[in-house]
Amino acid sequence: MDDGGVKVFTGFRVQYNDARGPSKGGIRYHPNVTLDEVKALACWMTWKCSIADIPFGGAKGGVICNPKEMSNLELERMTRRYASAIADFIGPYRDIPAPDVYTNAQVMAWIVDTYSQLKGYMVPEVVTGKPIPLGGSLGRDTATGRGAVFCTREAGRVTKMTLKGASFAVQGYGNAGSNYAEILQELGGRLVAAADSQGAVLSKKVIDALKLLKHKEKVGTVVGMPGTEKISEDELLRTECDILVPAALENAITKDVAKGVRAKVIVECANGPTTPEADTVLDANGVFVVPDILANSGGVIVSYLEWVQNLNRLRWTEEEVNTKLEDKITRAFSDVHETSQKEKVSMRTAALIVGVGRVADAIKTLGLWP
Ligand code: GLU
Q1: Ligand 1 nearest atom to the CA of residue 128, by list position
Q2: Which of 98, 123, 150, 241 could disulfide-pair with 129, CB 3.0 to 4.6 Å?
């Protein structure tokens, strides 16, 4: 640590399944990380990559720490130690990490450097979500939000909801949530409420998504945004709006919260934001839920595009990347929606039918050996 002391951090890397290709998934830095959480996230990554039909299995990593209380140098030393500990288990053809909650392109750069120093040559393709000069892909930083907006457009099409003028509330104003808000706003959506770990705000009229991000960058929270009033997180989740976007952590929408949800559509930018009990309530109340493993797959889809560019020494324009993302995620949405119509099940069950089904097919055709 900066004060000369030594601190022990516990970290994990879970590889859940690699039948369809090298395992793939982000690394999370958070004080509440547990091994069970990382296992669940790695499991969801498996179905997510399968639904998106990208040739990856599922993995996830996490370190128990509070990056908000650590200096940049402390974060760098911890990251390099973690990277060297997992170096034997990751690799461009084995398991490819990426950013997740409270990690970013800089953290990926430290992993590239640590891994490459150990190998003796540069291996930028060992992680995705890198800074652009190190082989990061244009469009990766906005990909999770953009993909979720494409899913919202498709959800609008099947539920007959027009995006122009649609009101939406975002819980979690980080990478996924803030990019979602900006991009949906460009299509005519009206942001009416937003929350982060410090609190939530509501506007009787509309909140400018970009100005809100600038405010958060300046003061560290969405709270205090001019023209808004402070509300509780619970009130945000029950806000009167067309689209509710949980974009923070797991289990935000519990059974109790679900009973009060007034949105017509939920787009899960976060992983696992809805408990199974809440899901039953939402289903019974006719809320159209775009499940996490479909809604937030834009991030890993563009991670795949980054990996393809790296391995082929290609550089695509942002437009090319966004078009490929749109194509992949729209196809994934329609695969899941068709299954939900055919099997008469919710979008979540349909997503699992598609995701688990493709992995099962891969395992069956691979056979058992030795
Ligand atoms: N952490 C992101 C997710 O949960 C991205 C993973 C990746 O790009 O590998 O989907």
Answers
A1: 8
A2: 98
**Residue 55 CA, ligand 1 centroid: distance in Å:** 14
The residues lining ligand 1, judged by C-beta closer than 6 Å to any ligand atom, are 24-26, 98, 100, 128-129, 271, 296, 299-300, 303
Mutate to test the pocket of ligand 1, among 30, 100, 325 (most ligand atoms within 8 A of CB): 100
Enclosing domain of residue 212:
143-295
Pairing assessment for the beta strands 95-99 and 23-30 based on DSSP bridges: parallel
Closest atom of ligand 1 to CA, residue 297: 10
Q: How many helices (H) and strands (E) does the chain have?
A: 13, 11
3-state SS assignment for residue 17: strand
Residue 112 shares a structural domain with residue 150: no
Q: Is residue 316 part of a domain?
A: no
Quote the pLDDT of residue 235. 98
DSSP states along 282-331? HHHTT-EEE-HHHHTTHHHHHHHHHHHHHHHT----HHHHHHHHHHHHHH
DSSP 97: E
Compute the distance between CA of residue 209 and CA of residue 314 in angstroms, rounded to an integer: 33
- Among residues 242, 266, 295, the one where a domain terminates is 295
Name residue, tokens 């034997």: 88
What pLDDT sits at residue 267? 98
Q: Are 202 and 193 in contact (CB under 8 A)?
A: yes
**Residues paired with 171 in a beta bridge:** 195, 246
Q: Is 324 a catalytic residue?
A: no
**What DSSP assignment string belongs to 270-282?**
SSS-B-HHHHHHH
CA angle 59, 65, 71 (to 5 degrees): 120
What digits encode the pLDDT tens for the residues 197-224?
999 999 999 999 999 999 999 999 999 9
Q: Which residues of the chain have pLDDT under 50?
A: none
Distance between Cα 217 and ligand 1 center (Å): 23
Same structural domain, 267 and 191: yes
Give pLDDT, residue 127. Answer: 98
Selecting among 24, 39, 48, 60, the annotated active-site residue is 60
Query: For residue 124, what are the contacts with CB-CB under 8 A and spacing of at least 6?
Result: 112, 116, 130, 134, 135, 310
User: How far does the centroid of ligand 1 lie from the alpha carbon of residue 324, in Å?
Assistant: 17
Residue 45 Cα, ligand 1 centroid: separation in angstroms? 7
